[in-house]
């Protein structure tokens, strides 16, 4: 079977589906219309469907003729809270909501994959599970976790899991993979600094939390620069500073919101401890107190199985004309990481940057655009991985 050739034949259907979803984006945990579209399409292909999995998730199960391995393929369905600025004919119809991370393309590609595999049902050695997941962008609980709690990785037990993400930073048509840690654990924290308010003309009578907050914004960078092994990727950013109402009032409190990104558990643990120590220490030095709170349930580091990834890269190279290369690590987070804790697998990327079509903006930009010519390749790549990995002998 030539899956890329077959994907080319259904390319108009994949693009049409993608545009339909793009025009009607839904935020995390509210993917009702998208889930309905997915369920209807899968049923029409003769695939067994379970809806309302982990909230708005959809599970499709395609049993082949053999008793081979069980392969799960995942697409996330949620959009982002921003106004679309991209000039496309199928622009978002929903104010303040846009598919700016390409999850619309993930759904359309995986439906394309389902079509390709359903057409080859009798040649399939094992079972393929299609995981259409809610709320990847939500952080914390996300959408993978509730789907796992609802049992998608069991009965039958998943042997391998794969996920594909559209990548606005990579050239169009490039498939990029990497074994080991590929994406970060995004730990969110809040530092609440309590001082003592008063008149701006008499700071000596107060404990100024704004001053302490300013010191802290600088000081926490010392965790990154002075306390963590510089060989380990690590970043700390404070994205929000809240305090005060008027120029001559020293407030009682200041709040900082930040994120820490790490690619391994020991660095993660140490970074969190050090941020706490520095915040408390700096606040104390100026007579204030700092409470540091980390969001529980942050996404784990996304760790691709080395062996499976290497095997997958060889399989992807069979796609004629595909440019397959090793990807750099990145410090974004992904709750696909949670599926990887349940079964070995790989999360890989499909480049969509194409200057001649104006596809030059990164994921999460209000001007993000996808080179739709790559979607057939994405659909074919997932189908090929499913065909080959259902055949694996353990
Ligand atoms: Zn995103
Ligand atoms: Zn995404």
SSE topology:
Layout: H1 3-9, H2 11-23, H3 32-44, E1 48-53, E2 57-63, E3 70-76, H4 103-119, E4 127-133, H5 144-149, E5 160-171, E6 174-177, E7 180-183, E8 185-194, E9 198-199, H6 209-219, H7 221-227, E10 234-243, E11 249-250, E12 253-262, H8 265-285, E13 289-294, E14 302-304, H9 306-316, E15 323-326, H10 336-340, E16 345-353, H11 375-390
Parallel strand pairs: 3-4, 3-5, 5-16, 6-15
Antiparallel strand pairs: 1-2, 2-4, 6-16, 7-14, 8-12, 8-13, 9-11, 10-12
This protein binds zinc ion (ZN) (2 copies).
One zinc ion (ZN) binds at residues 101, 137, 363-364.
Describe it for me?
The structure is a single chain. With 394 residues, this protein is α/β, with parallel strands linked by helices. It is 32% helix and 26% strand. An 8-stranded mixed beta sheet has the order 1-2-4-3-5-16-6-15. Strands 10-12-8-13 form a 4-stranded antiparallel beta sheet, with helices on one face. It has a two-stranded antiparallel ribbon with strand order 7-14. A hairpin with a 3-residue loop joins β1 and β2 (57-63). α2 (11-23) packs antiparallel against α4. The radius of gyration is 23 Å and the shape is elongated. The site of one zinc ion (ZN) has 4 residues, from loops.
> Which regions contain 5 or more consecutive residues with pLDDT less than 50?
none
Mean pLDDT: 97
Going by helix content, strand content and strand pairing, the class is: alpha/beta
Oligomer: single chain
Strand arrangement, major sheet: 1-2-4-3-5-16-6-15
Number of DSSP helical runs: 11
